[in-house]
């Protein structure tokens, strides 16, 4: 596949993407890292285009990453960040979409607490929609940047087993990692408390290429990489976990645990981290950590997607 | 217009059968007239072949007094469409705290009692309701759901919800409630009707209870007999269709709030169990759980959308499609739509009848539905089978116009 044969209007989830499409994004990401390494980090393909950042759920990191990506491609950037939810403001998502569409942006990058909200928006606008995270459902740019980062560290992912540990039930990152890494040939071992695993997956109806191993030590034995998920502190209060302390002891990444993996196996985390809960500081900032590289690569991946959706004459 | 002769209609290939009785519909009046009124609901009922429709009392205010029952009946009569029969609350204000005046409500015309949508979670109070309803001579209709277990779920908990990242309602939330309700029916010896059963294990519990001689009856909805949780993911194939149907129809956009309903659309195995229950008599009746909503409550994020499917006008073609697919004999389905609900409610046969054109193809179009509720995932779908004439109280109250061609 080439830039010319790219046919997607939106990036809502990579679940239905072909391997070719994922590869094309990764190739373009590589080109974008070159742009980012120049003294003046700016290229012209989105000049005159408007990227609307619509973040209905608080997020600094992803929003800034998209903003840098859009500006590096010379786009105009408009921020519409709702302090609370749109419902609290008395404005429905339908109202917001109509407004966004009328504003005439070329790309809408959206973050929303409701799973599926980007589909709702995409069906009602002429702009291209990029999902920057919807509820528990998907965070496709995170999946793609994780794939890019792992490729850069490990080379071909075929036959590589990657552990994703933590609150899979509520994690859009876990779902997008599955839907991006498995098509590239990797297999995924999910680990974490049974209460934070979708029941269908815990009971064996797993997506292709995915297994579940509640014992983290066993999951890590011989693994090619591990991705730790952020644990929301309120999970302990809602009866899904006995305590954060027990979670840290049972599913937290520490030196001894990561040593069970292959010698070259990296450690990743989508951020922001709860150091001392899902990951110890020495691991988060240790030799295996690719967490800083994930942040850097995130900008390049988002540039690649903006370019594919709006940056080339079609 | 003159009453057409049934024999003439039959000679012209129409199916002439007793009018359907819907023992579970939401007509929304009073309180939610932007979603439906008694008049629009009664007309939608007739178009769907329901010559009698029972209105659930979860209105604002809820139907928990004789005055409200009388008002509802008067509006139903004025609509001059399907017969509208009121179901009254079990508990005052549907609050689940103390019993409504059941005897008085029955005298005023309530045909059954239900706190539908809000199951009576206090087991002691539900026991009292079952015992006391016997004096009133009316059946208690229970919506079985353990709300502490279903929590904030918005769809069936399973592989589809796992993929979509939506909170699920486990099948067990229905099954624990059915188990409790059956235990209380056993304790009290009272008549109990379980509405909109949707899971394999719940139906198995009812099958066992009936074998033990309990006075329990049950219904399922057309949508639980035809659709699955895959519809939330965008599939548009009926439970008995293969994947080629999705290829033909084209899958829909996922997270369509019109697929959000309580109880939720379940798995294929559950749908098959609903049909098996219907065939062997475990399930007595088919009821629509017609739940119309104004678009403002549906054209929102999936998690925020109201539960419910507008179902009066699509029940018949869905069930005919199931019959064509060999899921149950036509006689079984027709009995479950007319004779069975009448028996459950203890209603006399009024002699109402309808004529059906089994071959008429039509497209579900929001503008053409009689109901104010356009909230059905079947919008745009081609369906087969339509009511041509509906006769209530010896008068033609609905005539699709096509009847002229048969006159």
What does this structure look like?
The complex is a heterodimer of chains A (314) and B (407). Chain A is built from 13 helices and nine strands. The longest helix of chain A is centred in the last third of the chain and has 20 residues, at 291-310. Chain A has two domains: 3-138 and 295-310, Aspartate/ornithine carbamoyltransferase (Rossmann fold, 3-Layer(aba) Sandwich), CATH 3.40.50.1370; 140-294, Rossmann fold, CATH 3.40.50.1370. Chain A is 39% helix and 14% strand. Chain A has a five-stranded parallel sheet with strand order 7-6-5-8-9. A four-stranded parallel sheet of chain A has the order 2-1-3-4. Chain A has helices spanning 19-36, 61-72, 93-103, 117-122, 140-154, 172-181, 199-202, 216-220, 234-237, 244-251, 255-258, 281-284, 291-310, and strands at residues 50-55, 76-81, 107-112, 128-134, 161-165, 187-191, 210-212, 225-228, 267-268. With 407 residues, chain B is α/β, with parallel strands linked by helices. Chain B has a single domain, classed as TIM Barrel. Chain B has helices spanning 6-11, 38-47, 66-79, 102-108, 123-136, 147-150, 159-164, 172-188, 200-211, 222-226, 243-249, 268-280, 315-324, 330-337, 339-345, 403-406, and strands at 15-18, 20-25, 50-55, 83-88, 112-113, 139-142, 155-156, 168-169, 192-194, 216-220, 285-286, 353-363, 382-392, 395-399. In chain B, strand 3 (50-55), helix 3 and strand 4 form a beta-alpha-beta unit. The chains are: A alpha/beta (314), B alpha/beta (407). At the A-B interface, helix 4 and helix 7 of A face helix 7 of B.
């Amino acid at each position: 596949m080439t830039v010319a044969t790219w046919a997607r209007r939106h990036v809502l989830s990579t679940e239905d993407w072909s391997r070719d499409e994922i590869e094309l994004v990764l190739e373009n990401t590589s080109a974008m890292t070159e742009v980012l390494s120049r003294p003046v980090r700016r290229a012209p393909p989105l000049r005159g285009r408007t990227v609307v950042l619509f973040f209905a759920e608080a997020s600094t990191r992803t929003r800034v990453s998209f903003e840098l990506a859009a500006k590096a491609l010379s786009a105009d950037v408009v921020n519409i960040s709702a302090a609370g939810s749109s419902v609290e403001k008395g404005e429905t998502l339908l109202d917001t979409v109509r407004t966004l569409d009328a504003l005439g942006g070329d790309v809408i990058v959206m973050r929303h607490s409701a799973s599926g909200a980007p589909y709702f928006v995409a069906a009602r606008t002429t702009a291209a929609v990029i999902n920057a995270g919807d509820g528990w459902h998907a965070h496709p740019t995170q999946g793609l940047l994780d794939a890019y980062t792992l490729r850069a560290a490990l080379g071909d992912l075929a036959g590589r087993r990657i552990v994703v540990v933590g609150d899979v039930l509520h994690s859009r990152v876990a779902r997008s990692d599955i839907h991006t890494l498995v098509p590239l040939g990797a297999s995924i071992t999910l680990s974490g408390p049974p209460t934070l695993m979708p029941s269908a997956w815990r009971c064996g109806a797993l997506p292709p290429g995915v297994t579940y191993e509640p014992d983290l030590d066993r999951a890590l034995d011989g693994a090619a990489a591990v991705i730790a998920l952020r644990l929301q502190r309120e999970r302990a209060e809602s009866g899904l976990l006995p305590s954060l302390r027990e979670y840290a002891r049972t599913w937290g990444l520490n030196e001894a645990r990561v040593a069970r993996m292959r010698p070259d196996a990296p450690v990743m985390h989508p951020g922001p981290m709860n150091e001392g809960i899902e990951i110890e500081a020495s691991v988060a900032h240790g030799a295996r950590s690719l967490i800083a590289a994930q942040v850097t690569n995130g900008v390049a991946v988002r540039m690649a997607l903006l370019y594919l959706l709006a940056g080339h004459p079609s | 217009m003159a009453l057409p002769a049934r024999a003439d209609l039959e000679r012209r290939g129409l199916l002439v059968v007793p009018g359907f009785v819907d023992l579970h519909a939401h007509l929304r009046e009073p309180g939610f007239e932007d979603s439906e009124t008694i008049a629009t609901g009664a007309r939608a009922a007739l178009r769907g072949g329901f010559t009698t429709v029972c209105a659930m009392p979860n209105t604002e205010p809820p139907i928990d007094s004789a005055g409200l029952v009388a008002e509802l009946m008067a509006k139903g009569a004025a609509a001059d469409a399907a017969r509208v029969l009121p179901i009254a609350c079990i508990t005052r204000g549907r609050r689940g705290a103390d019993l409504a005046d059941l005897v008085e409500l029955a005298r005023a015309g309530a045909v059954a009692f239900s706190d539908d949508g809000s199951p009576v979670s206090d087991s002691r109070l539900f026991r009292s309701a079952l015992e006391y309803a016997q004096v009133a001579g009316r059946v208690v209709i229970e919506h079985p759901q353990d709300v502490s277990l279903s929590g904030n779920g918005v769809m069936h908990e399973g592989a589809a919800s796992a993929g979509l990242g939506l909170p699920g309602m486990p099948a067990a939330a229905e099954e624990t409630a059915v188990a409790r309700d059956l235990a209380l029916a056993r304790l009290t010896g009272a008549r109990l009707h379980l509405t909109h059963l949707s899971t394999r294990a719940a139906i198995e519990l009812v099958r066992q209870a009936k074998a033990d001689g309990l006075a329990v009856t049950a219904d399922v909805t057309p949508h639980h007999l035809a659709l699955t949780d895959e519809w939330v993911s965008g599939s548009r194939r009926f439970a008995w269709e293969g994947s080629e149907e999705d290829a033909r129809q084209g899958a829909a956009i996922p997270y369509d709030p019109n697929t959000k309903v309580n109880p939720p659309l379940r798995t294929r195995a559950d749908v098959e169990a609903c049909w098996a229950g219907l065939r062997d008599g475990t399930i007595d009746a088919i009821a629509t759980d017609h739940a119309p909503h104004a678009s403002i409550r549906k054209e929102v994020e999936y998690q925020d959308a109201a539960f419910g499917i507008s179902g009066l006008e699509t029940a018949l073609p869905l069930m005919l499609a199931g019959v064509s697919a060999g899921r149950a004999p036509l006689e079984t389905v027709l009995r479950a739509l007319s004779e069975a609900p009448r028996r459950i409610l203890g209603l006399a046969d009024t002699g109402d009848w309808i004529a059906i054109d089994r071959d008429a193809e039509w497209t579900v179009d929001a503008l053409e539905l009689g109901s104010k509720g356009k909230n059905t995932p079947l919008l745009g779908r081609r369906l087969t089978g339509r009511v041509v004439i509906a006769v209530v109280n010896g008068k033609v109250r609905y005539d699709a116009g096509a009847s002229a061609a048969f006159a």
